[in-house]
């Protein structure tokens, strides 16, 4: 059985100064047209494109000088934004397109040429050809992947295409699962994994914590200055930290998925609402706890696992750091947070507290799959037989 998986490829274009100007003019014209259509949709509450087309298409063509396909793209962009707001149960408010918007449809508004360039439509000058950076994205330019409607962005003077690309893969069959891996997220260790053979892998996070602390210190110093140059510097530092953290999560998720067997099931923590809980920590540690990119790491693990023929699920992590994986005893005093250790008050089983979390998540994964599928033995108490550290 097949299923489609979609990821977003971020591709840098090497545009000349004149080409960037043309693209910027196209983005500006597209944004203005989006705001016009947004006003029409807000007043009419019309989200059916054929009916909206009858009302607004002539105006887009005549007054806004939109080419036919770009006029259709404008309507699709605005309708999608309103539908997204409606599905998220937001109030029916006028949506303003303040940031530059430009959506291009594959093989109509943009395409690949034989000379290794992207051909992009512009508002006033027809199509232009722009070469692109191929490093790291070569694998996507094959028949296995199909391109969708992309967004054009200009960031820090550079031109990018954000392209949703889709690949058909085999749907994960739980009956073929040959390993369960519990994955605990944390700060001192970005992730700790525990597999069915008792193998524990620690992905160190102390150096990440130290570097983020340095970012905090630098940001605080610049905020105290309050000058125009310090504000510009603050913005650059924020962008640099985001890029760096994104790269850390990419490397961690890639190594984590590669470290698992084929057809493995990865059991992750569902940390929805973790911000509320971490806001209770002491003030000096609050920023590190609240801003840690756990959800981004989870998303990267999920799609990388899917592409590798594996599966990642998220489960409730409640009490996974307080419960003993050997005897099931749950007590908040089992865990010593300061020393990052765990000692069961019942059976006195000892281990690292993050490893205990991974073991309990693994235990949840065993229950999810069932003992018949995996072939792992349970003892008389119903607990999984866990190897000692």
Which SSEs are present, and which pair or pack?
Elements (H helix, E strand, L loop, with lengths): L1 E12 L3 H28 L4 H14 L5 H20 L15 E2 L5 E3 L4 E5 L5 E5 L13 E3 L2 E6 L2 E13 L9 E6 L3 E6 L5 E5 L1 H20 L2 H31 L6 E5 L4 H5 L4 H9 L2 H14 L3 E5 L19 E2 L4 E3 L6 E3 H17 L1 H4 L15
Parallel strand pairs: 9-12, 12-13
Antiparallel strand pairs: 1-8, 2-7, 3-4, 4-5, 6-8, 7-8, 9-10, 10-11, 14-15, 15-16
Helix pairs in contact: 1-3, 2-3, 4-5, 5-8
Provide an overview of this structure.
- With 389 residues, the protein is an alpha+beta fold.
- The chain has 2 domains: 2-168, no CATH class; 174-374, Nucleotidyltransferase, domain 5.
- The protein is 42% helix and 22% strand.
- Helix 4 (206-225) packs antiparallel against helix 5 (228-258).
- It is globular, with a radius of gyration of 26 Å.
